Amino acid sequence: MLEILRSNDPTVIAFATALLRGEDIEVFELDVHMSGLEGSIGILPRRLMVRRDEAAAAEAVLRDNDLPVSEWS
């Protein structure tokens, strides 16, 4: 799996997840429960992961909607 997006903004994560799932791209969110450990102040970013073979398609979907994309190889 590759990281496709990292953000502290839960609305960006939710929007990106909805876009990717709408395109039938399997997406997995990491660090969801870290906010409980940090006191729910939002300093630790959440990460969206996609399968390696879907990363290029996921990147295109996010860029088409003006969302940031993590650097990956």
End-to-end CA span: 12 Å
- Please, how many helices? 3
Percentage beta strand: 15-25%
The share of residues in helices is: 25-40%
Strand order, sheet with most strands: 1-3-2
CATH class reads Alpha Beta
Run of helices and strands? EHEHEH
Assign the structural class, choosing from mainly alpha, mainly beta, alpha/beta, alpha+beta, or little secondary structure.
Answer: alpha+beta
User: For the report, how would you describe the main beta sheet?
Assistant: 3 strands, antiparallel
Mean pLDDT across the residues is 88
Unreliable segments of 5+ consecutive residues: none
What is the quaternary state of this protein? single chain
Q: What is the β-strand count? A: 3
**CATH overall fold name:** Alpha-Beta Plaits
What integer value in Å does the Rg equal? 12 Å
Full CATH superfamily name:
UreE, C-terminal domain
Question: Which term fits the overall shape?
Answer: elongated
Structural overview:
The chain is of the alpha+beta class. It has a single domain, classed as UreE, C-terminal domain (Alpha-Beta Plaits, 2-Layer Sandwich). It is built from 3 helices and 3 strands; from the N terminus they run βαβαβα. Strands 1-3-2 form a 3-stranded antiparallel β-sheet, covered by helices on one side. The longest helix has 13 residues, at 10-22. The chain is elongated and about 35 Å long.
List keywords for this structure.
single chain, 73 residues, alpha+beta, 3 helices, Alpha-Beta Plaits, three-stranded antiparallel beta sheet
Brief summary:
Residues 1-64 form the DUF2007 domain. With 73 residues, the chain is of the alpha+beta class.
